[in-house]
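Lecture 7 notes: from sequence to structure.

We start with a single chain of 254 residues. Read the sequence below before looking at the structure.
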Amino acid sequence: MRIPREAMSNSLLLAPLLALSLLLNGCGKKEVRASVPPAPSLPPTESGTASPAPSAAANVPNTSITLPPANAKPLYTQIGIASWYGPPYHNRRAANGEIYDMNQMTAAHRTLPLNSLVRITNLSTGHSAIVRITDRGPFIGERMIDLSLAAAKATDVWKAGLAWVRLEVLQTPVPIDTGGKWAVQIGAFDSTQVATKMKHELEQQYNTAKILEFAGPTGEWVRIRVPNDDKDEAEEISRTLTTPEGGVFLVRLD
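Now the structure, written as tokens:
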């Protein structure tokens, strides 16, 4: 069949225009990119630093002491009352020289060597945690150990305030039953005047000992440093000395 000349001319003109249109549309198409929001920042802890990501060893303190095997027998076991402490001790220097951070897995004990590792188990709930002894205390009644806020939360002591726990000593930097520097600590006193009066009375009563008075976060304290930091002599004083104000406690200084 013969194609009319006019139709052929129109087709020849339209073909280049169609190709040009397809080319321009293809070149002008923009790449689509998804907008991804930045990762959320970690919430601050009570100490003002970012919370670390949780780990399987979250209840193990950051310490250079190597943990013993899981099946190792405890060196020493004690059952008693646990409490916890935060402000006003937070960010103050602890007995081992470190700055106390209540968000770390640490604790205070009166007589265990500093930097000992112990496992604390709540006898009611069975929850346990490993803590490092970095401070001295508690100096209230018959309490056995003062946990940091983090340790108290891990062992269900935080909300209760007090709980019966089992303390198992896993490792110590020095022997438990020998050596050590020992003293008797008395307090806390509500006023400096009362503490000073107690200091003068003790200086007359124990003239061979060194009597120290110092301010603590909760009041004034008085400490008796016996000659040679002898444990037997300090223990004897702690058993026989009574005061109308403040408790009397045997304390290890190292």
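The longest helix spans residues 5-27. Keep this in mind for problem set 3.
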